[in-house]
Write the structure tokens for this entry.
Amino acid sequence: MANSNLPRRIIKETQRLLSEPAPGISASPSEDNMRYFNVMILGPTQSPYEGTFVQLLIGGVFKLELFLPEEYPMAAPKVRFLTKIYHPNIDKLGRICLDILKDKWSPALQIRTVLLSIQALLSAPNPDDPLSENIAKHWKTNEAEAVETAKEWTRLYASGA
Amino acid sequence: MGNFSSSNVNSRRRHGNRRSHPPPPPPAPPQPEITANRYVFAAATPYPSQYPNPNTPPYYQYPGYYPPPPRAMPVPLPAPYDHHHRVDHPAAHWVGGRYPMMPQPAPYVEHQKAVTIRNDVNLKKESLRLEPDEENPGRYLVAFTFDATVAGSITIIFFAKEGEDCVLTPTKADLLPPVTVNFQQGLGQKFRQPSGTGIDFTLFEEKELVTEAEVDPYPLAVKAEASPANQNGTEGNQASGAMNSQITQAVFEKEKGEYQVRVMKQFLWVGGMRYELQEIYGIGNSVDGDVDANDPGKECVICLSEPRDTTVLPCRHMCMCSGCAKVLRFQTNRCPICRQPVDRLLEIKVNDGPDE
């Protein structure tokens, strides 16, 4: 069973994520695998990924999956967007280009800090270090239009459903 | 790739009152305990369990003391100091006074345990300041706050040249003779040099007062000795060598036309050895005594369970428990907090005294 011998660190992180969630972020472990988390990140305000206000905030909810490998925290968690997103640092499979998930990982980072970094990446797309060449090119040649596309994708796909 | 790597992850530091403190060290002189391959950790105020210390500075509660690297001008080191003679770890050797630049074959770093030495008098370096001498316009007096667990004396020396065995010699004694003042034991004492003995900046050239890098002589040195000045009174600072003392070296800075004082270096002279004082980041969080494993401010950043007791050197981030540190050193040679290469790990147990 995957949940036996779960390190105390993972148990603590999970407890804290559930009891004190970061604003705009929710992460809850799967029942049958405590190393697998279902994650939802709200698109940051004033980014193309925020929801729309129609009395209530609608949409702008991005689903991700997060998996803690056996070596965690000596190795970074594996994170992927499940919701389609138009972003130069995220590819069509939802893979994320973020330094702390690769060579800049540190065991002092946690699930919470990783998700906060991803949320911040939504506020600050970096087309100079792209994962999706086409989206990055779009961003650099016509940013206004690219942002419109990102907003459109947010409306179409990031409903949270 | 986005750049959200944070170099100050988990940098929360709690500044709670300390309730538990290292026990008084054994009466024997600390020197014999200092053997090869050990670092020294000194508690700034070893006895305060009966005195709550109201002036605890946030990051300076337990300054870590470890021997400074060899200086450019080689100084003969006493034998116990000579802890770099292991052959199994190339990085442990000094090469021409520097660490060898070659990469280590494996991310393995030394794990060492600290030895505690006692610091009887501690000048709180952030409190060092200049105050105008009302009775002598134009002159400025050196003032600061200090803790003393025994009686002793403080000597203010301007333009002090450091000689062998930490003897400080005033180089402009004709203009500004050194001033020695005795004190009684007590924590949080205020010091101000006697009126009339202060410095008149107009008598000196700016380049003598304001110095950029490390300098000798330092424009200001404060020597705090852990025993009263001897019968010769003000000659106490000249005899020096044998007595344990803390020395603070400072420079003057000109800000908006006013001179300010800034501490450059503090060191201890204990048992015939010179220890440079360095701060340890994050240590204040882990020495509160009652280990609350659920407080993110003092738990190991890796297991989130055990209290922190291991400092990464040279960056001095106290962030791990010894167990995780032992695992980490085989996985990576980067500090978890700042990602600087780890040279060695220093385990500092402050709560393992007999009263625990």
